[in-house]
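Hi R.,

Quick one: here's the GH16 domain-containing protein sequence you asked about.
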Amino acid sequence: MSPWITPARFAAIAGAAAVAAVPLVAVPAQAATSVSQDRLTPSSMTAGVAATASLTVHSSSCFTARTLGVGVRDASGANLDFPGSRSNVRICPGAVSLTTGSRTLPAGSYAEFGFWQDTRGGWHNLPSRTLTVAPAAATGPSTPTGTPTPTPTPTPTPSAPSSTPPASTPASPVPGTSLAWSDEFNSPIAWGSRWVGSTSSAFQYGNHNPNDNKLDWLDPNAVQVANGVATFTAAPSAHTLENGKQAWTTGQLTTEGSTEGFQVRTGDYAEARVQLPTGSGAWPALWTWKNGNGEIDSFEYHPDNPNLLELTNHVNAAHDYYTDAKAVGPGDWVTIGTYYGAKSVDWYVNGTKVYSDGTGVGADWSAYLNLSLSVSAGQYHPGPSGTAPITFAADYLRVYR
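And here's the predicted structure, written out as tokens:
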């Protein structure tokens, strides 16, 4: 959710879902180093069947790549990369190998390629090959399974989520912590005292931020509470952004600038139960921010990568693309938590630890909480497919310390 910066390949770093067709960037300091792609698999998959990718590369001389991963691009140019790229990889003439996380793809023909990122942020795509995804096998002579049907964009109800979240009991998976702060969304948003929804220092223009590939135009009225749930609604706006694109009014809750001014700090565990959106262009996130830095993304989500959550530490660079088809999907209620450890930030999904970054936030870190529904401008993920409103819901946001 970093402002003013063209997002990295995988929108937070933050996926096909955060990954786009990024032009090659020439970096003088590494211009003399060439990287060769020795092996890339798979060459074929079956629609709906999860598979991992493997990549082996070597270089003309040893250097450290900030990121190494496997990209996938469909016929329209949309990126559907395999999750689980590696950070800070030492690449030498002796070769290095990577096995990604798993993902599924619809039937079709794709371009598959290795990619790496240099230390100055430049992205480099290696030679591509064709990845063929065959239709799923028929289950019987008269009932073919066919190609998976994409999840349709529903007609949302702005005032309430599409389903009721399951009952919850305040408890933390981190031993020794107890509830210190929460919003259960059982009453109207406490604008001004607890939350601010009209401006953020993370947005270049205060209430909008086009240079971060967003169509957002913040409006407190875009967050409404009913039946114990806060619903964020994004809809086309009459405003025009500086880049000429039509803005979408949308909602964000931030503790920054509120009278209470609550901040999470080293040793805290923050958790939210949210309903992931289904609409194309949706970009929800739970994240932290302070003084142009301090960003930890508890999650970012894009429906075009339906089973993937982006988990990112921008304080001491680390990230993971967590995939779970059983727990993560459009319309699903999922509980996502983050422990802000001094030496390691830990991420939890439905109470189970899924990633520890080993870098942490340091002993004296603190930052404001943000829960938001952004709208993608289409550079790294598909933008809105029409003018129908997009919704995202939250059952609660809690902090334990």
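The chain has two domains: 16-134, 179-400.

Cheers,
M.
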